[in-house]
Amino acid sequence: MESAGIIDLKFRERRDFSPYYLLRNPFPAIGIPEDVPRFTADRELEKTMFQNVISELIDAGSSLLTVVVGDYGSGKSHLFKVFKNSINTQLLNRDNGTLAIYIKSPGEEFKYLFHGMIDNIGRDLLRKLASELIVGLIQDNVEFRGYLKPDYKEKWEAILTAEDVIMKTRYKSMFNTIRRLIFTDIRDSDIVRAFLHMSHPDKSINSWKWFVGEKLDKEEQNNMEMTTNSIDSDNVYLFFCDFIKMLHNIGIINVVLLIDELEKITFISPIRRARYQDTIRQLIDEHPSQVCFYFSIATRQWSSLTREPTALVRRLQGNWHILEPFEKEDVIELLERYLLTARIVNFSGNISKKEYPECHPSLCPFTDEAISLIHKISKGIVSNILLLCRITLNALIDQSEHYRVITTKLVEEQAEKLTLR
Q1: Cβ(44)–Cβ(400) under 8 Å?
Q2: pLDDT tens for residues 149-207?
Q3: How far are the Cα atoms of 152, 167, 333, 413 from residue 337, in angstroms, in the given order?
Q4: What span, in angstroms and rounded, lies between the C-alpha atoms of 279 and 265?
Q5: Rounded to 5 degrees, what are φ and ψ at 210?
Q6: Residue 201 to residues 130, 137, 158, 162, 224: CA-CA distances in angstroms?
Q7: Helix residue ranges, H only, 198-327
Q8: Phi, psi of 180 (to 5 degrees)
């Protein structure tokens, strides 16, 4: 007997996209960019500008500053994640490498910027960097082999790739030597100790807690020989600068900071906003080399921010770039790329053209007129384009008795539901 109110999910009816040579609806339900973008459409100018910035950073060590200005949904976050993925898959190594860090938002004060940086780097990468540093020191330096426990001194080569290499050393003494020899320019020892303890299988969790702003209890703090139990607003700027130096010291020569949603600082109170802007300005000024700053901000808030003649604004104003809305050709490229990700195996353009002559094969089931209307209604804003494409494609399947392909009428009906008209 079927229980009242129970929804049968085992035998739910599924939309069948196969008549249009699709396995599924490829358009995302919400306009949030993927952490690892599969592709980007157009933006050739922005990509070329980024290539030039990174070339200058690597070749000359010049710190550069760029502000990307665009409407909400125009693809700023997606572009920043493309930048990050491109750098970290091609240039991230421990030999004069480059690391890109995407910071979702500067938040309401500087500590959010620091914790956002740490969160994006991630626990796994921090642990990997710390472990590789220790392994490299043991491999290349006789002095550091002296920190191996007696059972391992004669067979040190066999443990160099072991994940638990730190457990085979007198690591507390070794950490003191690493601090003295490798991190001489780091002002606070706590960030060095927290970083090195990331290599310890039992203590990395406490190091991570400290890095992301959680407080250590007294036992955890003493066990790691830390002088502070947390990173707070008073010491976070020092730790931010020390962390960048620490990356340089372990071989990551260049750092690219991709700071999204700069508009968030325009929503805080005037006194706090002025203080925060001055801190960001100071951060830029203190890193004239080996650090690239990329900011993004919404168009309206950019206008608001630049009305205030602050020191930060003076630095940003000469380095801004408008992210233009998509033209129709860009919309076509975007649709083609998304549709391709969901095409059936052995998709044939000839068969598609024969079955649906109204559509170009790569755009089936969208007609050219429908795409023109999607471009017009969306105003070229990427998030609007994707959302409209998604609900229109679903509507085509749901109303297959009335529509053969996606027409302007179907687009208009769905746009009314989204209040995009």
Answers
A1: no
A2: 888 877 777 777 767 888 889 999 999 999 999 999 999 999 999 999 999 999 999 99
A3: 54, 49, 6, 25
A4: 12
A5: -65, -45
A6: 12, 19, 19, 12, 13
A7: 204-211, 218-223, 236-249, 270-285, 299-305, 311-317
A8: -70, -35
Residue labelled with tokens 């010291």: 249
The token pair that represents 118 in the structure block: 């740490």
Burial class (CB in 10 A: 0-12, 13-18, 19+), 1: exposed
Residues 6+ apart with CB under 8 A from 328: 371, 372, 375
Mention every residue, 6+ apart, whose C-beta is less than 8 A from residue 347.
Answer: 21
What's the rounded Cα separation, in Å, for the pair 421 and 402?
22
The domain spans of the chain are: 18-32+327-418, 44-109+233-322, 126-223
pTM to 2 decimals? 0.90
Q: 44-109+233-322 belongs to which homologous superfamily? A: P-loop containing nucleotide triphosphate hydrolases (3.40.50.300)
CA distance 421 to 287: 47
Dmax of the chain from CA atoms? 80
DSSP string, 162-187: -TTGGGGB-HHHHHHHHHHHT-TT-S
- Strand-by-strand arrangement of the 97-103 sheet: 97-103, 252-259, 291-298, 65-70, 320-322
